[in-house]
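hey can u check if this looks right to u? its 216 residues, i copy pasted from the old doc so theres a chance i mangled smth
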Amino acid sequence: MRLTSSFDDNRPLPEIHAFAVADPETHFRLGANRSPGFTWDRPPVGTRSFVLVCHDPGVPSRFDHINRDDVVIPESMPRGVFFHWALVDLPATCRGVREGEFSDGAVPRGKPGPATRHGARHGLNDFTRGFAQDPQIAGDYFGYDGPCPPWNDERVHRYVFTLYAVDLECCPVEGRFTGPDVLRAIEGHVLGEASLTGWYTLNPGAGLTEVACVNN
């Protein structure tokens, strides 16, 4: 199975797909937050639906260090996983999704769900827990919300979009499910998978171009 998009694998992710973009005066501002478009072909025999997941494997382990003028988050800080998108139940006949089809703008307090286009369902992304303590923007963030890495982080972040072909017509998750819930639910049911990785940072000193080239 082959997955393609408007951005190349292991190269910078266009900022049109980001929740936040760099700003020289305020460090960052809200971005276009358009969900990427994807096409795919040659799914495995027996595919009954598709699952699309995006995660960042480099979120800092110390949330209290994020976006502080007096702290630099070092490359060496232990990292965790942050899920930006979990989309399940895309029909087996589907061969792509359009850019902006599932998100077109950053929405404080989040977008509704879980029901979405093509009869598919969205899970909650990790902005739900990331913003939970901020009363002005806390809410249920269903669907896609793009990169918003700490502007004081030395690390350039990776955003891994993975398409799974599964032998399930309906993913066995319900209600306010999350990315980890989806991955547990499809374990043992994946017939094939394909992924693309985009790089992104809000730190002008992080060397995005150099890092992406080295890892290409």
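Residues 85 and 144 are 5 Å apart (CA to CA).
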